[in-house]
Sequence to fold (272 residues):
Amino acid sequence: MNFVKSPLVPEIRSDAAYYFIFSCNDILVAENFPDPLSIPCIPETAAADMGLEGVRFLGQYGSTDCWCARIRPAHLPAKHRLISLRALYGKVDAEFWSISGYARQIHDWNLNFQFCGRCGHATQAEIKEHSRVCPQCGLTFYPRISPAIITAVVKDDQILLARGVNFPIKEMFSVLAGFVEPGESLEDCVRREILEESGIRVKRIRYFNSQSWPFPDSLMIGFTAEYDGGSLSIDRTELLEAHWFTRDNLPLVPGKPSLAGELIDWFVHGQN
Ligand SMILES: [Zn+2]
Fold:
């Protein structure tokens, strides 16, 4: 990793800086035809010409400063365009995609917590850390992270996959996932989500891996589990269909960079 996070703006700025600039859910990229897309690396004066708002320091990539900000669509510079963060994957270096996700979450927090949720007063950004404080009542707002579990449930040589109501690609199947609720452990959440969504009880829940998933602010925590009982009975508010699949008969499933893709890959390659 070449990127080092820091909220502290250095006294000596780099000549040019990477700007992770957002407009709604999209990020600004430079078009360097025929070269690949890139995150704009520009002098501070050029950034000022774009009329950026909500500019916030993120850290340094090597010795180059990194900032996040937002732009009004009317101010888009020439030879740049907006692209969704999901679509950016594979079009820039993997570390830049990762920094883009971090930038998106810092930007969203900085934008969404400008006013105190308790008393309505305008909040103030702290300098030494990414936090916003209400000067009226003292409440502090940190970047929000929403933990969610994602689980590969295996029954003999089959994996449980479902098609979700809200999947961006309608024909895609994936492992089951859901947000952690207040008061429950991650394992409780795995048991509850799988049972609620599919009617299946699970055992031998084991941690697999985790992944920041900035759509908009999830931390995906992956598990594997074994079938313990029950028959498929899906929650139709969440799922369109769910089935058991063998590794040689898989439907369309997610690939990289998702943790879902990693879990399915683990099943396909023998669950080691
Ligand atoms: Zn307040």
Summary: The helical segments are 44-49, 85-88, 94-112, 186-198, 259-268.
